[in-house]
Amino acid sequence: MISIQDLTVRFGEVRQQVTAVDGVSLDVAAGESFGLVGESGSGKSTILRAVAGLIDNWTGAISVDGRPVTRRRDRAFYRLVQMVFQDPFGSLHPKHTIDRILSEPLIVHRIADIENRVRAALDQVQLGARFRFRYPHQLSGGQRQRVAIARALILGPRLILLDEPTSALDVSIQAEILNLLSDIRQQSGVTYLLVSHDLGVVAHMCDRFAVMRQGKVVEVATRGDLATGSLSHAYSRQLLLASRGYDRAVIDAFADE
Amino acid sequence: MLSAAMRDWLLSDTPHSRWQARAGRLYLGWLAFARNPLALLGLLILLLLIVMAIFAPWIAPHNPLFGALEDRLLPPSGEFLLGTDEQGRDIFSRIVYGARTTLYIVCLVAITAAPVGLIIGATAGYVGGWVETVLMRLTDAFLAFPKLILALAFAAALGAGLENAVLAIALTAWPPYARIARAETLSVRNSDYMAAARMTGAGPARILFGHIMPMCVPSLVVRVSLDMAGIILIAAGLGFLGLGVAPPQPEWGSMVSEGRAQILEQWWICTYPGIAICIVSLGFNLIGDGLRDVLDPRGA
């Protein structure tokens, strides 16, 4: 579904350039759910933004559904690829009603039958029609993230980029949102590329995942590897230990490069 | 004031239509505005001005354009409430008719300068690059001159007359709006909801008008309503210098100007139009303050 070859993203002026992503290559099959894990600043979200066309100072090759993507994305690209952002408080326009937020993609793509599609999208994310004419500030964080998911789904994309979709939410809401995302994938067979710093989330959501550090992929592993603890790279093992909770002995044993 | 059912409909947190959601939002804004007594006073002044302008022929007791020479320079009395000027015209009637001129100038300047500033500023902020450089340097060039001096220069170049005065004021009023719109645009353009808007596949025009401008409008509305007082003063200043409205037409600034020769003996000729200018400017300032409390995006 998506293939990334030697993707490199640099920020800043020539002199003090930061290489956020350093020669990353990935392949994700259609219908698969692929995770990107790593600490803050490891470049995982930057990969998503490069794929989404939100940053354009990247080099390398990205192809989606067998077609290479260019720096400027056309409208057809956005019917194929959509994104859910990390912070549901920042990703919904504060002056638009939920109705407007969900109608906007349909209007841009000149899709008829807006009325029924908006209602169906709200049902799909288990928000009733009574939320339709509210403003984002009248919704809770979990409800807002449901709206953001509905917006990503409404054009019927085949690939959804999930940028830490639950890390801004309460623990109890996180599980609901993750289950909703799993259900949606089962029903529609959509491909997920999920970014998270939480191995628990990745274990729950993804068949395979890549561990990233300082802009590079250090290891690609499967859910099975995670369950048996058979990760090969030292950093991945550290991440796994860290995800099991705080333990002084474990922390002391960490090597900081 | 409102029936309970109407209130519930407006304040419902589950509106059933676009229209209800919008009306509810307006009503909440109004409730916040109405909590400020000074803002209500400002609104009252504005409403009085509007009523005066609309019903001028019924309110004014005398002809504002022609007076009888035997009534020259009469002090305030029962017949002439605020006295008469040196041509025997009733000052009260002229103030009432002058409300039309004032309102006309203020409205025209607001509906021309504000959108121009908004479009220029938002475009500069969103597009960036050389477009931003060109637009903002142009704005800076206009900002470099004192407003009144620039308006004077334009009015002198265009010739006297109401329309030219409006044009001259509008030409000097837009640059601050462009600055505000650009600043607001810069603060929202890298937000996730703008990224989401780009990911719908929307073109730059749609993002600019549908997503960015709604975020600029509140601070612009506040600034415009605070500027109204300044616009009235500049219009009065142009009138005072004879660059505003053509002579027989009543305009508060030129009325003050006409009375300045007799300011010590017949003080009422310039005092009352001056008070009118003062009250209306104050009213707009109070409204602006109230609107800022309601609309300020950082306060909410």
UniProtKB/TrEMBL annotation, chain A:
Main location: membrane
Enzyme Commission number(s) from the entry: 7.4.2.10
Domain ABC transporter per the UniProt entry, residue ranges: 2-239
Catalytic activity field: glutathione(out) + ATP + H2O = glutathione(in) + ADP + phosphate + H(+)
Enzymatic class: translocase
UniProt membrane topology term: Peripheral membrane protein
PANTHER family: GLUTATHIONE IMPORT ATP-BINDING PROTEIN GSIA (PTHR43776:SF15), TRANSPORT ATP-BINDING PROTEIN (PTHR43776)
Role of this protein: Part of the ABC transporter complex GsiABCD involved in glutathione import. Responsible for energy coupling to the transport system.
Protein name (Swiss-Prot/TrEMBL): Glutathione import ATP-binding protein GsiA
Automatic annotation (TrEMBL), chain B:
ABC transmembrane type-1 domain boundaries: 99-288
Record protein name field: Peptide/nickel transport system permease protein
Signal peptide interval: none
Main location: membrane
A cellular component term, taken from the record's GO annotations: plasma membrane
Locations listed in the record: Cell membrane
Regions crossing the membrane: 38-60, 103-128, 148-174, 220-246, 266-288
GO BP term (any one): protein transport
PANTHER family from the UniProt entry: D,D-DIPEPTIDE TRANSPORT SYSTEM PERMEASE PROTEIN DDPC-RELATED (PTHR43386:SF1), OLIGOPEPTIDE TRANSPORT SYSTEM PERMEASE PROTEIN APPC (PTHR43386)
